[in-house]
Amino acid sequence: MLKVIPFYTGKRDIDEVLKDRKSLEILWMEILLNGNVKWESYLNNDVVKGAYEKACIWYDKFGYMIGEYTGRHPLPVRTGVIDKKEYRKFIEALAFVSS
């Protein structure tokens, strides 16, 4: 079950998400904050794989906070640079899923 994307776009399942540009832009946050979906089973899709890699980089930077607020199991370690312009959206989504 999706948590973040329905709040922002109204899309409720992966098939809808993969057809919606706005949903795809925030798919990485869904992966980052939602450990209830078996994301690894979707990694054969290049778009999902890219979002998963981005989520792993963000988890490397903010994993402790994400774990504490969401109970999400750790993502694989990936090092990389995050876009600090997306930080506000990340914090907003984190607050939403943790409430």
Structure annotation, total helices: 6
Rounded to the nearest angstrom, the distance between the terminal CA atoms is: 17 Å
Rg over CA atoms, rounded to whole Å, is: 12 Å
| Morphology call | globular
DSSP summary, beta strand count: 0
- The portion of residues forming beta strands comes to under 5%
Low-confidence stretches: none
- Main structural class: mainly alpha
Question: SSE order, as H and E?
Answer: HHHHHH
Assembly type: single chain
Q: In which range does the helix fraction lie?
A: 55-70%
The major sheet is characterized as: none
On the 0 to 100 scale, the average pLDDT is 96
Q: What is the compact description of this entry?
A:
The protein is an all-alpha fold and 99 residues long.
Name its key features.
mainly alpha; 99 residues
Verbal overview:
Helix 4 packs across helix 5. The mean pLDDT is 96. It contains six helices and no strands. The radius of gyration is 12 Å and the shape is globular. The protein has helices at 4-9, 14-17, 21-25, 27-33, 46-70, 87-98. With 99 residues, the protein is mostly helical.
Task: Annotate the secondary structure layout.
Layout: H1 4-9, H2 14-17, H3 21-25, H4 27-33, H5 46-70, H6 87-98
